TrEMBL record:
Keywords: ATP-binding, Cell inner membrane, Cell membrane, Lipoprotein, Membrane, Nucleotide-binding, Transport. Residues 8-228 form the ABC transporter domain. This is Lipoprotein-releasing system ATP-binding protein LolD 1. One of its GO terms (cellular component) is plasma membrane. PANTHER family: IMPORT ATP-BINDING PROTEIN, LIPOPROTEIN-RELEASING SYSTEM ATP-BINDING PROTEIN LOLD. GO terms for biological process: lipoprotein localization to outer membrane; protein localization to outer membrane. Pfam families: ABC_tran. GO terms for molecular function: ATP binding; ATP hydrolysis activity; transmembrane transporter activity. The gene is lolD1. It comes from Caldovatus sediminis. The keyword Endoplasmic reticulum does not apply. Belongs to the ABC transporter superfamily. Macrolide exporter (TC 3.A.1.122) family.
Amino acid sequence: MSDAAPPLRLEAVERRYRTEAGELPVLTGADLVLQAGEIVALVAPSGTGKSTLLHLAGLLERPDGGEVFVEGQAAGRLPDDARTAIRRSTIGFVYQFHHLLPEFTAEENVVLPQLAAGASRAAARERARALLEAFGLHGREHHRPGRLSGGEQQRVAIARALANAPRVLLADEPTGNLDVATSDRVFAELLDAVRRHGAAALVATHNPDLARRMDRIVTLREGRVVPA
């Protein structure tokens, strides 16, 4: 594995789903490279494979063809436990719906993935507090998700995604569930945090204004990644 390898590279990735009508090809040879510090917008109509691409990039699914390289390592076809280990140490996820654990506080939601990755509780708590403060959540650390606004909940979700200092951040409509003003503010914080951490990010969005604030825009056409 080379130090110069990009954080994420998809090479001729294919994905097919079996349906009652037969096989449905979704990705038919998708290529994509994310460089360190680069934020790429993925803008494509619903049903074209955006979520599938993100799931493959995040090692949540195995490709039917091609390969997913994470920091130069062929990772797409590794056993489940090996892919899980890479996800924990290298990849962060942000979804449209925050998926916070409702029975835990904001701080605990950010601490838990760090404990799963082997951090000490003291170090995990210190990093969680620093991240939450950076997202303007000082004083809200001990509130459970039900006591936070939608924008605050998504800030916690972003902090959680960054908790293990991932080299790759994948986001699927991360502000799609927020009003326009809150979406703009949270997205600005997301971009700033990704740039400060030097991560490579792939962000799926339907919002062209948000897409234009990223480094480049790609789309999906006939199962392949092409410039938008």
